[in-house]
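Look at one such:
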Amino acid sequence: MTKKFKLEYFDLETAALPLEILRPRMPEFQAPAGWKDPQKVSQAIQEKQAKWLSDCALSPLTGQILACVWVTMDGKTRVMDADATSEAAVIEFIFDRFRDAGMGSQYKVAGFNIAEFDVPWLIKRAWATGVKIPSGMFKFSGKWFDLPPWMIDIRHIWGMGEHYAKGSLGTIGEFLGVGEKKGSGEDFARNWRDPNMHAEAMAYLLNDGLLLPAIFERLLESSTDQYGLNLQTQSTTK
């Protein structure tokens, strides 16, 4: 018999908004002062534009949710693709799973760095797309936003009270001996939309999703009280 915790996991990947939306917002870039060579000036401006566009995927003001991987209690994965449906449809799918977790005690939802990244992105992109946010999804302690009791940030457990604890999903997976990252998230959006590279991007997304339960359940193995998280377990026979 192996104990499995009643947890479901999710991970988001983002991309810059379409160029036609971003172009009016793009700053007017300049080459370094004193540069005269037209070719070098043009190249410098293009490099600054490319860097600005790349960084757009890091903010919900200039980016969008492109894909989500969801891992169920039995280890099955489901991938949602905003290009195939819509960003709003991806958010609605995730919020439906959140409502199931919030309304009952079937499972809790976990992810890595979700308090700093995934949940704020979901809320802000829901505001942008008009998707209704589930009741009780967040609250404020003073000016700070807190996750609901049915949502767990694995990074908080890993940090052990250190707010900016070092360690990415991949490095923690390697440290614990349960897996490692495959590829770089910087290339995800481009690869996801490239028919020749889509399979590689899909493998990257699925690997990230499956690293979540591998890491978290490894962290929970040494705790008899699951760090006070009030987790339920389900027994499965191998």
DSSP finds eight helices and nine strands in the chain. The beta strands are 2-5, 7-16, 63-71, 77-81, 108-111, 139-141, 144-146, 151-153, 233-236.
